[in-house]
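Its record is retained below.
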Amino acid sequence: MTKITNPANQIEKQLPAELVNFMQVAGEVAQSQGQSLYLVGGVVRDLLLGRANFDLDLVVEGNAIELTRQLIEIKQGEITTHPRFGTAKLQWNKWSVDLATARSETYVKPGALPRVKPSSLSNDLFRRDFTINTMAIHLNPSRYGELIDLYGGRDDLEHKLIRVLHEKSFTDDATRIWRGLRYEQRLNFQLEPNTLQLLKRDIPMLDTISGDRIQYELECILQEERPEKVFHRAEELNGLQSLDPALKGNGWLAEKFKLAQQLTSPNLPSFGLYLALLAYRLTEEQSGHLISRLRLSKSVAQTLQNTMAIKTKLQALANPALNPSGIYRLLHGYSPSAIMANLLAGDSNVACQHIRLFLNKLRYVKPALNGDDLIRIGIAPGPRIKEILQLLHQARLDGKVTSKQGEESLVKKWLANKE
C-alpha cells in the first residue's frame, strides 16, 4: 500500500488535471456557501492503494443538487438529479462526477431499498458497506487534502481486510455479500474473521434481494479482470448456490472464462456469453429457473435459452460429413453469444470446427442475386422467388457457385430443366 502523508499530493499525482481542477473549484464554491465537500468511497481507497480510479463520488454537508446547479454554470455540461435521494450527476466532455447530500439510511425490512434523510458526514460514511470504503478527503480550501478516517478504514487497508461496520450489515442489504467477495478477490484481501462469520450466517438473506439487483451485482463481478475467482469463492461459502444449487465455480469455469476472454479480446466477453458459460452445465429447467430468478432481459434470457437449444444439436454438429449448408441450418437464427458459448464449452473437436466455420464465414454468406434480379431473369413473382433464393444461398454455402454470374447461370439452368 502506498504510504501517503499528504493525500493532496496523491490526488495531483493520480487523477487527471481536469478532475483535480474540478474538485478544487467545487470545494471553493461549497465553502463560499458555508457547506463542506468531501471526496469519498472507492476512489479514496484506490488513491491510498495507488490504483487507478476516475469515478469521483463527492458528498456535501448541505445540498448536493443546489451545489451541482451552481457548478454547472462554471463547468459547461449536463446534470441529472434525483431529489428523492438528494443526489446529482454532473457530466462534461468525457468526465462525470456524482454528488450526494450527506445522508443516513434506515431499512424498513431486509433487502428493501433504504429510506434516506439528510445527515452528517459521519452518518453518511457509517451507512457504507465496508470500512475500506468509509474514508473521505476534505475538499474545502481551508482543509483541502485532509484524510478523514472515522471507522478504521486505513488500518484495514494496511492489513488487507474486508470488514463490515456492524453486524446487521448483510441483513440490511445482502448485495453486500457479492460486493465483499468481489473486493476480496480484486484486491487480494481477506474477509475479516467476524465479517466472514456474519457473511456465512446471512447467505440466506440473498433471497430477500430482487432479481434485477442481483443481476447488477453479477454484471459488476463480470467486469472484473478475474471474475471466476469471485464465483469460486462464492461456491466455497455457499453463495453461488443461492442462484441455483447446481451452479459450480470450479476450474472448468475458470478455463472457459479464460477462453472467452481470448476469443473476444481486446473487448471483455458480453454479459450474455459469461452467463451462458456459468449456466452451461445446468439443465433446461434449471436454466429457466435462473432466468426467472435474475429477471433477465429478453436478449440475455434468449442467449441462455439458445445455448441450451444448441447443446442438443452438438451431436449432429459433430458429424464429419456435414456440409456447410447443413452447419448453417443447425446454427442459423441463434444469438452469437450462445453459439460462442457452445464453441467454448463443447468437447467435440469436429463440432467446434463446424461452429468456428459458421462464426467466421458461413453466417456472412449471402446470394448476390435478389428478388428483382430473379424477376428480371424470368421467375414469376410469388413464393417461388423465396424458394429459389434459399436454393441459391445453399449453393453459395456449399461452394457450388462463387459469383453473381454463376448464380444467374444456375437459375437459368433450373428454369431450362423445368421447361
Notes: The first strand starts at residue 36 and ends at 40. The mean pLDDT is 91.
